[in-house]
From TrEMBL:
Homotetramer. Its cofactor is pyridoxal 5'-phosphate. Residues 46-422 form the Aromatic amino acid beta-eliminating lyase/threonine aldolase domain. Belongs to the beta-eliminating lyase family. Gene3D superfamilies: Aspartate Aminotransferase, domain 1, Type I PLP-dependent aspartate aminotransferase-like (Major domain). Pfam families: Beta_elim_lyase (PF01212). This is Tryptophanase. Keywords: Lyase, Pyridoxal phosphate. It comes from Methylocapsa polymorpha. The keyword Oxidoreductase does not apply.
Length: 462
């Protein structure tokens, strides 16, 4: 059959808020033109993130009821640990309440000021946790990966030549570990090939530098490998995931993505000394090592979800939904990152709004237009999220790209929801010249996108 169907049916529904344009204008104004500050009840289709927004399966809800809430030695912890060990093979596994808690423990225990952490592309929280301890986060994407419109297959790959040059110039001692993010969220949800992970590992091995996988979307990456990398077509997603993790010395994970859960994560490693430090910091900031900031029932839901994410029918449907949207936008000449990523469609806001400069924040203009036109919430991944103000000045340093992400919550929206999004985008595309510039009036020193206030730059303040 040519039609790829949702491999589930719907047992419970949740009403979608439908609003008028006047209501949306008022809501956006009171949210200081920042969609992060909107109330969810004012949003019709929420594509802000694929993180923690998925629908759990009947099996996950059933597992939830088995939650053992014992403070120490919970049965749910054992189930969580054995599932994570089956998939990743790591000796030491620590539950955390989400991905950034794992990143924080890793950065706080292993880094000192002046250290360097390479990655294909750091996600915002990973970068912020590294910078918070005074270390430097360096992105080493391949030239292909930096080219938005190249249809190359593994555009999340790390540039191994650049990695080797960085190690040679800075010295291995300055690099306590290297990371690789699968899939590469900041760069368009693009996958990393097994061959690339293997050659990154080989290069690091020469200098005794450990490799840590940011594994948030490990199952989506495994599917890309199965579909597109020679030699993997007959391997199961579980086998591919196991091979990927076998190349790493540690992993950080947000179970809010490919754990198909609403909360949760973990940190894992082989090294006993690392584990000792992680355990001590975990107890200080997250909780006892058999729950780490999670309820027993959350551990159960994650244990089931991690396996469901590796089901082939599920991944086939998931990738088909992203492809469906991507191909319809390409048909309309709407500029998007190609090929389609695993969890989202990324629009190139710089090309969408050629009349705006990076300092006009074209991504914010596009995100706000989508909300005003159709009640859709997207997110900017451009100069607000990744740019910064030059210290001691008011000068903005632009990000390398101005992207807007439409992230797909897992198992939540149907094809007609996506048809609606395509129709709204089509309308905004035809009126793109009217998208205004925005200016920041208030911002935090870290992760400013979450709380910044904006005003329209084409309207005089009263
Ligand atoms: N690493 C990557 C690649 C991520 O995409 C995220 C979160 C994290 C780490 C942190 O995990 O949210 O559980 O603390 N990404 C979400 C997103 C927020 O919208 O892409 P977390």
């Amino acid at each position: 059959m040519r039609t790829i169907i949702e491999p589930f049916r719907i047992k419970m529904t949740e009403a979608l808020p439908v609003t008028t344009r006047a209501q949306r204008e008022a809501s956006l104004a009171s949210a200081h033109n920042n969609v992060f500050l909107l109330d969810a009840e004012d949003i019709t289709i929420d594509l802000l993130t694929d993180s923690g927004t998925g629908a759990m399966s009947a099996r996950q809800w059933a597992a939830l009821m088995q939650g053992d809430e014992s403070y120490a030695g919970s049965v749910s912890w054992r189930r969580f640990e054995s599932t994570v060990r089956e998939i990743t093979g790591f000796k030491h596994i620590f539950p955390t309440h989400q991905g950034r808690a794992a990143e924080r423990i890793l950065a706080a225990t292993r880094l000192k000021p002046g250290d360097i952490v390479p990655n294909n592309s750091h996600f915002d929280t990973t970068r912020a946790n590294i910078e918070y301890v005074g270390a430097q986060a360096v992105d080493l994407l391949t030239p292909e990966g930096q080219d938005i419109y190249s249809d190359a297959r593994f555009k999340g790959n790390m540039d191994v030549g650049k990695l080797e040059r960085l190690i040679e110039t800075k010295g291995a001692k300055a690099i306590p570990f290297c990371m690789i993010t699968v899939t590469n969220n900041a760069g368009g949800g693009q996958p990393v090939s097994m061959e690339n992970i293997r050659s990154v590992k080989k290069t690091l091995g020469k200098y005794n530098i450990p490799l840590v996988i940011d594994a948030c979307r490990y199952a989506e990456n495994s599917y890309f490998i199965k579909e597109n990398e020679p030699g993997f077509a007959d391997r199961s997603l579980m086998e591919i995931a196991q091979e990927m993790f076998s190349l790493a010395d540690g992993a950080t994970m947000s179970a809010k993505k490919d754990g198909l859960a609403n909360i949760g994560g973990f940190l894992a490693c082989h090294d006993d000394e690392w584990a000792e430090d992680f355990r001590n910091m975990l107890i200080l900031t997250e909780g006892f090592p058999t729950y780490g900031g999670l309820a027993g029932r959350d551990l159960e839901a994650v244990a089931v979800g991690l396996k469901e994410a590796l089901e082939l029918e599920y991944q086939r449907y998931r990738h088909a939904t992203v492809d469906y949207m991507a191909s319809r936008l390409i048909e309309r000449d709407i500029p998007i990152v190609r090929p389609a990523g695993g969890h989202a469609v990324f629009i190139d806001a710089a090309d969408f709004c050629p009349h705006l400069k990076p300092s006009d924040f074209p991504g914010i203009g596009l995100v706000n237009a989508l909300y005003l036109e159709g009640g859709i919430r997207a997110v900017e991944l451009g100069s607000v999220m990744f740019g910064r103000v030059l210290p001691g000045t008011k000068e903005e340093i632009a990000a390398p790209r101005e992207l807007v992400r439409l992230a797909f919550p897992r198992r939540v929206y149907t094809q007609s929801h996506f048809d609606y999004v395509i129709e709204v985008l089509d309308l905004v595309w035809r009126q793109r010249g009217a998208i205004p510039p925005y200016r920041i009036t208030k911002q935090a020193p870290f992760l400013r996108h979450f709380t910044a206030h904006f005003v329209r730059g084409d309207v005089e303040p009263c």
